Amino acid sequence: MKRKVLSVLLCAGLVVSMAAGCGTKDDADTTSENTNTADDADASDDEESASDMEYVKEKGTLVVGITNFEPMDYKDDSGEWIGFDADLANAFAESLGVEVEFIEIDWDNKILELDGKTIDCVWNGMTLTDEVTSSMECTDAYLQNAQVVVVPADIADQYQDEESLSDLSFAVEAGSAGEAEVSALGLDYTPVTAQSDALMEVAAGTSDAAVIDLLMAAAMIGDGTSYADLTYTISLNSEEYGVGFRKGSDLAEALNEFFAQSYEDGTIKACAEKYGVQAALIEE
To answer: Which of 21, 199, 218, 253 has the most CB atoms at less than 10 Å from its CB?
Structure first.
């Protein structure tokens, strides 16, 4: 009888021991999984809260997304990017202790390029539209602008109000404020890659008219330019330019401070006068 009881007790102890052993392994696996999940969450939080400025400083370059847009960003005879925005971008990058790199982008994909970190900012006479301000961390406005209708000079007198535009075919930069204006008016238009392409369409006669930025029109069409036979007529809106960074970026505020200092020491006014945009400056 004693042997039977002892045997039962030994079996029971073995079962308990095995259960405890299995329980320990499961608990360890669960703990490990929970720890890994927590680590992943912490890493994600760290990535989201990382300073954009530190990211730029660490890689040593500020990558600026642009299009060919005189007088904001365009190439000189030696192939270097110059212009009001290009010069300011160079100066801002220098203040951060990094190099500047300009990359021509498809304007319609500017937000994708920014979020994908192909570029660090969009600095190219960018209108502060609702889409832009909701998708980017934007600076304060620094220049005033408008969207204007460009037509051949010999027919300009026929197109002096919005009602007269209904029979025209337009060329506009895809994703631009100009496209938004002609679309809102229900006008016939063809999207092109850049505003400069829109001008070429009108000059070639493949489009009747274009809608581009006033600052570009003032610099690129009329007497003494490559488009002497073109002129602009009416303004379709009024707007303001800003620079866009990734949402939440601390570089936007840093650039606001840079702008403020540049107003104070007169360098931004001198740069504006160099490129003929001083009348459009928004004073701090």
So the answer is: 199
**Percent of the chain, pLDDT > 70?**
82
- Do β-strands 147-152 and 209-213 pair in parallel, antiparallel, or remain unpaired? antiparallel
- pLDDT at residue number 243: 98
> For the sheet containing 147-152, what is the strand order?
188-192, 169-173, 209-213, 147-152, 230-235
Per the CB < 8 A criterion, the answer to whether 92 and 62 are in contact is: yes
Burial status of residue 101 (CB atoms within 10 A of its CB: 0-12, 13-18, 19 or more): middle
Are 281 and 269 in contact, with CB atoms under 8 Å apart? yes
Residue 233 lies in a domain: yes
All residues at 6 or more sequence positions from 195 whose CB lies less than 8 Å from its CB, including other chains: 67, 69, 173, 176, 178, 210, 212, 213, 216
Task: Determine, yes or no, domain membership for 169.
Answer: yes
* Structure tokens that stand for 215 in this block: 């600052």
Going by C-alpha positions, the residue among 136, 167, 137, 131 that lies closest to residue 149 is 167
CA distances from 218 to 10, 138, 161, 188 (A): 98, 26, 19, 24
Token pair belonging to 206 = 């493949």
Does 126 share its domain with 157? Answer: no
Domain count, the chain: 2
Residue 31 φ then ψ, to 5°? -60, -40
What is the residue range of 118's domain? 52-143+241-279
Mean pLDDT of 181-195: 97
- Asked whether residue 160 is assigned to any structural domain, the reply reads yes
Cβ-based burial of 55 (10 A; exposed 0-12, middle 13-18, buried ≥19): middle
Which residue did the predictor score with more confidence, 219 or 35? 219
Question: Model-level pTM?
Answer: 0.76
